[in-house]
Structure formats: structure tokens, C-alpha cells
Amino acid sequence: MLAIYPDATDIICPLIRGGQFHNPVRITTTSLNCEKKAVCDINHFFSKEIGCMLQYSETDPNQVAFLWIHPEARDSSKEFQVPCIGACCFYRQESGYELQWVWLHPYWRGRGLLSEAWPKFISEFGEFDVEPPITKAMAAFLKKHGFKMTERFKHTQRMFLRYDSFDSRWASLESCR
């Protein structure tokens, strides 16, 4: 059962001060507080929908987040507040970076925002890992973009599926290949 439905009207997108944005906007410990708070708010939406908490810390230098601004608001004046429609977070491990989580407002899913940003992520982080659990939609996305599963990824997804295999949202290892 989903906590957030695609036609949900009760999701209030966080607002940040307008400006000249290029989606997605890179957020680090030195970013504006309102931008870091927007990532925290979107992380809460992710946790509510998925049912498990993956932390985002505004002060952790090992985390790099990205924030998607509503496409019609990317070049707005700084006097206006603009809605944030999604975010993702990468975490630096000893072995390299790992994509911890991605959340886009249900209305904006499947509209190419993540596909458009994917080359930017690969350029910045190289071949990164993806932290399970992986939904069926994310598995299809990763397969489409040629993601190569590491042994760590396989092990973690397998362990997660043992714990929570009754939920139909999670992708089997076969669908991630």
C-alpha cells in the first residue's frame, strides 16, 4: 500500500528563493539553509512513501544532494519563492559514491527529469553504486541506463527482499539486471 499516491494533492512542495537555476541544483553543506531544508523535507516524503528512513544530514560533508526546481520557475526573480519538486542524495563511501535515495513528486515521475540529470551524475561521481531497496520503477530506470550491479548491491537487495518480500513495490534481483 502506497503512503503517497500519484494523484495526491496533499503534498506541499517546499519553497526556496528564486534565481537562475539549472536542474538539478547541487546542494552541499555550504548551500543556503532554505535549500538544505527543502532536501530534508523531500527526504521526509521519500521516507513516508517507501516506509524506511534514509537520512539526509545538512551538515555531513560526505553527502551531496540535488534539488529539482519546478521547470516553469527555473529563471524566476529572487523576490519569488519557487517550488522544489524532487531531490536525491549521494553519499561518499570508501569505495566511491553511492546514490542513497531519489524522490520526485508523483506528477513529475516518468517525465525525463532523472534521465536528463543522469549524465551529470555520472560525470561528477563516476560509476556509483545505488543503495537498495530498489523499487520496480527504479530497477527499470537503472536497466534502461545500463547500471551494473555490484556484489554489495546484490547482497543488500537480497537481504532486504528476505525481510520485506511481501511488498510488491520492490524489484527482484532479476529485474535489476
Largest sheet: 6 strands, mixed
pLDDT < 50 stretches? none
How many DSSP-defined strands?
A: 6
Gap between N and C termini, in Å? 26 Å
- Please identify the structural class as seen in this structure: alpha+beta
- The best one-word shape is globular
The share of residues in extended strands comes to: 15-25%
Supply the number of helical segments: 5
Into which percent range does the helicity of residues fall?
25-40%
What is Rg? 16 Å
What is the string of SSEs from the N terminus onward? EEHEEEHEHHH
- Mean pLDDT over the residues: 79
Write the layout of secondary structure elements.
Layout: E1 15-17, E2 25-27, H1 33-50, E3 63-69, E4 81-93, E5 96-104, H2 113-125, E6 129-130, H3 136-144, H4 151-164, H5 173-176
Parallel strand pairs: 5-6
Antiparallel strand pairs: 1-4, 2-3, 3-4, 4-5
Describe this structure in a few short sentences.
The protein is built from five helices and six strands. It is an alpha+beta fold and 177 residues long.
